[in-house]
Amino acid sequence: MGILDSLENSPELKGMLGQLGAAVIPAVLGEVMGNGGQGGLSAIVAKLEQAGLGDQVKSWIGTGQNLPITAEQLQQVLGSDTVRQLAARFNIPVDQLSKVLAQQLPAAVDGASPNGKLPHTA
After folding, report:
1. Rounded Cα distance, 103 and 2, in Å
2. CATH number, domain 40-115
């Protein structure tokens, strides 16, 4: 089971999305962390660290508890234009997309970094 597959089964995610469909956010995370215009997981991690969110990122990659990130912080890092484009592409309100991504990104990075290390292909 892949990291994005596990997000589809998250009760919190399903509850928040309601009628939007739980399969949408894993697809958005795939865009952000994978082959999307953001450059993959390593690029997202680098952007977050450059934005002063290194403590959060270290907690996600490490083996301890994940520190939170706000929707506003994530939107600043990804860029408002990128968030708007993703929201439009997946037909999700921008504020809801940012909120759910901020809640799910720490777990996604945590799951993608087993043993406290990012994969070399990230």
Report:
1. 18
2. 1.10.10.690
